[in-house]
Amino acid sequence: MPGLPISNETMPQHARLVVDAHAHIFPPEFDRARASLGSRDAWFGELYGNPKIQLANDADLISSMEFAGVHCSVVCGFPWLDPGICRAHNDYLLDVAARHPGRIAAVTVVSPTSREAAEEAERCLRAGAVGIGELNADAQDFDLAEPELLTPVVEVCQGLGKPILLHVSEPVGHLYPGKGTSTPDRLQTFLVAFPKVKIVAAHWGGGLPFYELMPEIAALTRNVVYDTAASTYLYTAKVFRTVVDLVGADRVLMGTDYALLRQDRFIRKLQRQNVSAEELDLVLGMNADRVYDLSLGGARS
Ligand SMILES: [Zn+2]
Predict the structure, then answer these.
(1) At CA 158, angle to CA 157 and CA 161, rounded to 5?
(2) 101 C-alpha vs ligand 1 centroid, how far in Å?
(3) Could you tell me which residues come within 8 angstroms of residue 13 by beta carbon, excluding any fewer than 6 positions away?
(4) From the CA of 297, how far away is ligand 1's center (Å)?
């Protein structure tokens, strides 16, 4: 990774590779068109209708990465319902990834029930995307409990060995914009239908790790890993140690949900938790490198 301007002060002292596995950026023109996009897409309007909420772009992200000591960010698509907006967003994400090899990787989005979903997934994966997502049932008008609708997209991802990033949320607790109803019970139905596709269950899988204490759920989640996106917005910091104990340090990917949360603060918080240096190396970067096949080499000095 040539010439990375990593600051020693903010660089985690013993971590070798730092990957933010869940960040969101948007084309600058989407920010300018925020009001009209908000009226075309209800989910976008709910999350980003307020112009005070940052709609970060690639330049913002690179600055944040330099400040936070992040080597690589996986930028994820927004769950647009309209396949045309998905395509425009994907073109931007693929272009940014191509301009920043080793620094930014793209997870591109499709509207899973649209007629062109499988074709768009394949186009993006062949153009360098490292996965498909972040799919969101509430935003995109599907239900994880009716998984047959997702078959074409799943088959493309499974065939190319690429993961699907799913938004999953808690069946309990406070309501917040973007929470939705993709709860672990619905994800279970999806996993029964598609046990072989690689899944990254965002936001700690809405609490699914706890249910891995049930042997049948542990068997069902063999191809599932969890990301930590938005964690500090949802859970106390105990969640890091707890989930590592529940599912193993090799199945947790540090993701911030940037720009919702700041990368530097999130990483500092994770570093302060009771996790060993070896566990931290896995969670902070090596797992994302493996799951998204980022070819970062696992270790950085
Ligand atoms: Zn999400």
Answers:
(1) 85
(2) 25
(3) none
(4) 27
CA of 204 relative to ligand 1 center, distance in Å: 10
pLDDT of residue 16: 83
* The amino acid at 96: V
135: CA distance to ligand 1 center in Å?
A: 8
Q: Tens of pLDDT along 89-126?
A: 999 999 999 999 999 999 999 999 999 999 999 999 99
Cα of 254 from ligand 1 centre, angstroms: 14
Find the 301 Cα to ligand 1 centroid distance in Å: 31
pLDDT score of 300 more than 80: no
> Which pTM was predicted?
0.93
